User: What shape does this take?
Amino acid sequence: MDARAETRLYVEEPLAEGAAVGLDAERSHYLRTVLRLERGAQVALFNGRDGEWLARIDAIGKGWCSLAVLRRTRAQEPHPDLWLLFAPIKRARIDTVAEKASELGCSVIWPVLTRHTDVARVNLDRLRANAVEAAEQCERLSVPELREPERLDRVLAAWPAGRHLLLCAEAGNATPVAEAAARLRGAPAAVLVGPEGGFAQDELDGLRALPFVVPVGLGPRVLRADTAAIAALACWQALAGDWTTGGADERPPFRSSEQM
Amino acid sequence: MDARAETRLYVEEPLAEGAAVGLDAERSHYLRTVLRLERGAQVALFNGRDGEWLARIDAIGKGWCSLAVLRRTRAQEPHPDLWLLFAPIKRARIDTVAEKASELGCSVIWPVLTRHTDVARVNLDRLRANAVEAAEQCERLSVPELREPERLDRVLAAWPAGRHLLLCAEAGNATPVAEAAARLRGAPAAVLVGPEGGFAQDELDGLRALPFVVPVGLGPRVLRADTAAIAALACWQALAGDWTTGGADERPPFRSSEQM
Assistant: This one.
């Protein structure tokens, strides 16, 4: 059984042997009151830069906590370079999207405003908290960046060179997502999912005219926006990302002849 | 713009020109009070056998509704033969699993009881309702069959010949899911997802010893059970199911040279 600490926390401070990290009131409360951890208990820390480190609670009180950083347990690894752009949807579903985009290894989660977006305001702090919690639980070594909502046309006008944009296409010509993802393997990518009402026709025409946009098909059924997002991200990771090698602990895969 | 009716309903009655279909109180209420449909309004009906048919509300009242079946709009098609077996999880997440398994084209959704399953009772009626509603909205021509919860060992002991079982493997040797799905293309399949606490070691050993079980890897991050289910189903559909041909309206895909 792994001796790794069960509680993983994302922090922003540098992590190095002998460093000290202080937690804010909310997180201290979480450790002390919810998890009932005491002085001496071990937690794992990561900050997206320095890998994962074992740390020990040096002192903990009402609304504060001081951690001593002990030793590194995992080296920092790069994550596949995958963004999710999506038109905001209603609360329960958008929380799920943030959580699952984090589990599925997204580096950027970006709400984009389209003609038929029917949710005007996005609670970015809450989405960020969902994404961080999911990152802690899924054992990744970074957290997604939650970007301020932006109009789709402005996002596209400033699109970084070299990044493909997989457009989850409700209708019209599209490459099956598995085929597109396999072709894009190794290159930075983004997935774009429209609102439940779909993109406006001129938005679609504009998107299809852009050289970095790849319309992808997600089968013959009409998927909800959150389903499309999760499915497209999973397919990209499975074919072009870090699911392509081995299993959860990265030992070599079974040979198929032994299995079937 | 498509003249197809916007409201789709799953019914069990046979569908044929000139047939009459009566709706139960709950559905009549839904049409009359929620959707505010009146006599003469058109809806689409499907029953999993006869395709999709246009129907007209002949009469509607408090707690009842009579529909006249007019003409067939879509022929029945077979669905990819894909089952989801999963250990029950908490309510909000299990409802999402039923909904998305339906959108992702599952023909069977089957709660299985494992050693560490922490949800004792499953509200099958509610799950079935979620699955049916999702089937209506995603425009598929059938609804998943929701099976009574069963112990995993009994499910495995009665496993139908010819069907592969993709085991979402938290650890240990596993074939990357995309590779496994591509190899299984065209064959009946099932996805098995364990509880949040994972399978017991002897359950895993037993599973891995079975010739029809294929452990599949879903990357280096630890996915929640509902995330794993949706991701595995999506990957199977994308590589072995009905996502492999064209886009939403099944026109031929873009040639890649035109696109990138």
Notes: Residues 8-74 of chain A form a domain with the Ribosomal Protein L25; Chain P fold (CATH 2.40.240.20).
